[in-house]
Design goal:
The chain contains four helices and two strands. With 95 residues, it is mainly α. It has one domain. The protein has helices at 26-33, 50-54, 61-72, 78-94; strands spanning 35-38, 46-49. Strands 1-2 form a two-stranded antiparallel sheet. 13% of the residues are buried. It comes from Oriolus oriolus (Eurasian golden oriole). This is EPIPL protein. Residues 1-28 are annotated as: Disordered.
């Protein structure tokens, strides 16, 4: 399931307190809205968000945490995360 948010203006909510749930970080929203065509495993023939792939059983928790930290810190680009995640999922599904 891919959740898409129509709220593009998260910055205006910064510092305001209300009944709204906490706003997603921009990098998290990007991972949830960036989709990849997968040709392996349970995702074969589907467009899957990078967020869902990162949280699938194909990606070990240690790898997921490291990738998220590196991406959030700006040390990995979105394209690099996409490549690494696709490669890990493809190799894990083929194993």
């Amino acid at each position: 399931v891919t959740v898409k948010s129509s709220n593009q203006d998260a910055a205006t909510a910064a510092g305001e307190e209300g009944d709204d749930p906490p706003k997603e970080e921009p990098w998290e929203t990007t991972l949830k809205t960036t989709v990849v065509d997968m040709d392996v495993g349970e995702f074969r023939g589907h467009k899957v968000s990078l967020w869902d792939l990162l949280h699938s059983h194909y990606i070990p928790e240690e790898n997921r945490k490291e990738l998220l930290e590196l991406y959030e810190a700006g040390e990995l680009t979105l394209e690099q995360v996409k490549t690494v995640v696709s490669t890990i999922v493809t190799r894990a599904a083929a194993a």
